[in-house]
Please model this.
Amino acid sequence: MGPVFWVLIETSITKGFRAAVAFDMGVVFADILFIVATYYGSVKLFLSESNKDGLFVLGGTIIFLFGVYSWLTRSKEEEKIEVTESKHNYFGLAAKGFAINIFNVGVFIFWGGVTIVAGPSTGNDPLNFVTFFAIVLLSYFITDLGKIVVAKQLKVFINEKTIVFVKSLLALILVISGIVLIIGGLEAS
Model:
């Protein structure tokens, strides 16, 4: 529910389906870069079986803290980002999606937490790791396509109250997920 979500909805409403898909492709490309960076930054941690339980605790803690941060900032006013590109400037829209996502430190921290948890879970096999994240990113992209399609219908429901409710729900899910991972890592050690 950060800037990417709102720009995706706005782009869909003002510029159409193709423009919103181009914007989202830039976002997905930034996510792929984050995943690759966090994977290569932590690959040595994955290779040691003795680190597995600690990685669940570390990843769970990162996700938990991200959830707490999301909870504490859920009612702050989102900065409205204007999309001014032409409807046919798909490369510009993809670049804007990439830029908005790549400069969001929270996204990097989130993917870092997921990468740290997914590394040991995939058996330290690069093919399993790539398959896992390909499925996650494909699911993410399909979900975004759904958002794009129903954006015009969402317009009537978007107000401050619903934004705070959805942000609160997402933050709670992250906190609970982080706690579950931390407990799982601690119980296994």
Notes: Residues 3-188 form one domain. The radius of gyration is 18 Å. DSSP finds seven helices and no strands in the chain.
